[in-house]
Amino acid sequence: MDKEQHSMFDAVLARLDKAAAIYGLSNDVAEVLRHPKREVAVSLPIKMDDGSIKVFEGYRTVHSTHLGPSKGGIRYAMDVNTDEVRALSAWMTFKCAIANLPYGGGKGGIKCDPRTMSVGELERLTRAYTRALVDVFGVNKDIPAPDMGTGKREMAWLLDEFNRITGEDSPGVTTGKPLTLGGSKGREAATGRGVMVASLAAMKKMGINHKGATAAVQGFGNVGSHAARLLVSKNIKVVAISDHTAAYYNEKGIDVDKAIKFVAANGNMLKGFDGGELISGNDILTLNVDLLAPCAIQGVITAANANDIKAKLIVEGANGPTEAEADEILNSKGIIVVPDVLANGGGVTVSYFEWVQNKYGHYWSEEEVNTKHDASMTQAFENVWFNSQQYKTSMRIGAYITALKRIDKAVKYKGNY
Ligand code: NAD
């Protein structure tokens, strides 16, 4: 990667090393976690609609399988690269450990712009990616899920291609599937739901009455739109929302349901929404609100803008929205950051429930899923809070310590380096 760019994996290692030092992790175990277990890069030649052949780059990284099969989404975006996928796979290792799931971490991606591709092209690309990685994926080996630029449609193609090749029906080989193909009720909203649960838990610790508290939500895709909707359902006033096309502010509170309908009818774009005043995409991060929920992309809170942040609480719906250098600035300002590895763990938690239901062939009601999810998220929050207090550190480092405690034991029990 370009040396000028920040390496996302370096950002993971910076946090890992800090947490390892505070927790007292042995160098041996830290060294194991500094390296992904397996990385695969594939070239995917696809016939485009105009008859030409275009070759796409695909990746899958399995960071760790110490706690169980690797688990992690697949991202379709133009900036997908080895460093990013490696970082995201390591975050999955920590996230699954924090959520107390029997999973290791993995992540995949294809360098492409799904917004400019036809449905047929996307289907051929997803099937080609599945064929190329059929030996990596498996119900008890490596289990993908949706991430940015992918959803239940792509998971359905992946499952179908995998089943055709193996000749068996293996619904648990991926999660985030459509309900009719073995998906779980509550999965689609789960990551946003976890952001809501984590926000309420943090406000309680901080003595903020959530009723009437204000929030700004960056990103209005799967995570951001559900997070905003669910925050409103708890009487939190969402005063600003944004996506890659526009950002809107409304002092009286955004009508989030109206925004969701608008985006669905407007090619997945917020631009043109009439429910607020147009503001700049950067300004949404520095509004005078109680809660800032970055739910879009990585690297948006940096050393350059961290000083201008006025929110008392940041709940990271996105993966890696805060660069490592910004952590210290936020800490010194007394801003509580509920880190990504905890805050967006609701998605993988319900993915785990989906996988369990697939294994049993027995399906739960939405209420059952949500109740189990909320209990699991609340417990994970409490564990992280406890460790951050016990080790007198930030919630981010407390979260890594929570993960390291579990992984450390597993690595030692398994032994045999
Ligand atoms: P998505 O593709 O559904 O939505 C992404 C949203 O971010 C879109 O609204 C897009 O317009 C917006 N966006 C992109 N660039 C932006 C910018 N520069 N400024 C403002 N908005 C911008 O993706 P998603 O599934 O909602 O994922 C969002 C983040 O959450 C990612 O970091 C992803 O890794 C993380 N995440 C997702 C899940 C999940 O279950 N979907 C789980 C855990 C973490």
Description:
With 417 residues, this protein is of the alpha/beta class. It folds into 2 domains: 2-12 and 36-172, Leucine Dehydrogenase, chain A, domain 1 (Rossmann fold, 3-Layer(aba) Sandwich), CATH 3.40.50.10860; 190-343, 3-Layer(aba) Sandwich (Rossmann fold). The chain is 44% helix and 16% strand. The chain has 13 helices and 13 strands. It has helices at residues 8-23, 27-33, 82-98, 119-132, 152-166, 187-206, 222-233, 256-265, 324-332, 340-343, 345-360, 366-390, 395-414; strands at 38-47, 53-64, 70-71, 74-77, 104-111, 142-143, 214-218, 237-242, 247-249, 277-279, 291-294, 313-315, 336-338. It has a 7-stranded mixed β-sheet. Strands 1, 2, 3, 4, 5 and 6 form a 6-stranded mixed β-sheet that branches. The radius of gyration is 20 Å and the shape is globular. The chain starts with 7 loop residues before the first helix and ends with a helix. The model has no long low-confidence stretch (mean pLDDT 96). The site of nicotinamide-adenine-dinucleotide has 24 residues, from helix 7.
